[in-house]
Amino acid sequence: MSLKLITAGESHGPGLTCIVEGLPAGLQLDREALDRDLARRQLGHGRGGRMKIETDRADVTAGVRHGRTLGGPVAIQVHNRDYANWEDRMNPWPVEAQTPQVHLPRPGHADLVGTQKYGLTDVRDILERASARETAARVAGGALAKEFLRALGVEVYSHVLQITSVTAPRRDDLTPADFATVDESPVRCLDPEASRAMVEEINKLRKQNESLGGVFEVRAFGVVPGLGSHVSWEERLDGRLAMAILSIQAMKAVSIGDGQEIAGLPGSLAHDEIFYSEERGYYRETNRAGGVEGGITTGDPVVVRGSMKPLPTLTKPLRSVDIATHEPAQALRERTDSCTVPAAGVVGEAMVAFVLADAYRTKFGGDHIDDVRAAVDAYRERIGWRR
Question: How far, rounded to the nearest angstrom, does the alpha carbon of residue 257 sit from its chain's CA centroid?
Answer without folding.
Answer: 17
